[in-house]
Please model this.
Amino acid sequence: MRICTKSVRAWMQLLLSLFVVVAMLAACAPAAEPTTAPEQPPAEVEQPTEPPAVETEPAPAEEAKTVTVWGFVWTADWLDAIAPQFEAEHPGVKVKVERFEYDPYQDMVLTTLASGEGVPDVVTLDPMWAGDLIRGETVLPLDKATTELNVGDFVPGGWNLYAWQGVQYGVPLDLDFNLLFYRKDVYEAAMQTLGMTEFPTNTEDYLKLADQVVKDTGKPAVIIYQGDYYAWYQSFLAPMGGNLINEAGTEYIFNDAKGIEALQLYADVANQYKVGKLWDFDTDGDPMVALSGGDVMGVMHGSWFATEIASGAPDMAGQWAIAPVPWGATGRPNDAATGGACLSIPANAAEPDLAWEFIKFSMTPENQVEYFKIVAGVPSLKTSWGDPAFDEVNEYFGIPLGRSVADWSLRAVPMQLPSMEVSDLIGEAITKATLGEATPQEALDEAVNLAPPLE
Model:
């Protein structure tokens, strides 16, 4: 079959026209969106920042603590002297020392500690009234005393003074035991008359010497204090082998044979041998007047009396001497019983831990030397005795008084601590026996029968 050429040309022309139109339309159309995202500049990376500070209240400073310490007379002066160093070693701690005179202090301590209100953290005690406080559980057992202090550094008589039934209730400060203060010039003249080369150390020899003193001077050789439980116990009962309380601490035994013998001798020195002056403060007044006036030639007191007589009779320097009390047999194991102050912690103390730290601090050799210098009492802490202060010669007596008392203390036993009521009962028994109102046995039996039971 044949195709017509004219029709083909017409059809081709039409297609060409359509192509041109499409091309023109395409050229006029907007460009298509790209199919991939255009590159963006790198984002700025945010650096980590510190979390905003939380505003908090500053921690409050630790509240300052106060350790309240009670002391009487010169002991308080010593406490004042050592307190600043304790404060320096314990930042934030203040030491408040409260000072009292002896007589009102005794009543206040007994009343306050018994009530448990307003008590100090550290209290200075005296053996005259410590027994009531210990047995009444108004002071704390010092459980750390035997582990944080070296017991062997203390004179046994001092350390054991404040132990009760195996428990320690106080740490001793000084040693207070009776010594014989005597007129050196008078006694030495009498010794020469008798051919004695050493001062007597037993009852028999002393009575001979005292009798010669009375013959030479017409004056009593020694004062015997009326009704003085302390003097009788320290100077007669203890060196003659007696005790107030049995070893178990359950009953009073001062009315046994040794107690009766000791009270008989106490009375006989004045009444039978007539070498002692039975001194009653109410009728005889201040014995210092008689001692300084040459009316009595001797007296028994603790070493603290050295200061008293030096100030009471300053013109008699060199005329007085000191010796251990002579009562008892030759070769006896001790010469006296010792008392002495101690530091304890009341049961209701606000700061018992700091109180113990203060007591421990007070027991360094350096602080105990300071005690000796201020109070004049020889410390129970033997490691303090190496200080040169103990070898200084006392101008009034002409001897190294501190060294002498320290040596004598090694022959002193600890006092046992009765109640105040019992010490008063013993004082009454002494008065009755010395005045002849009862025999020593009757007087002591009555005191034991009236004594409250030991707890």
Observations:
- The first strand starts at residue 65 and ends at 72.
- Residues 5-28 form the longest helix (24 residues).
- The chain has two domains: 65-175+340-398, 178-337+418-450.
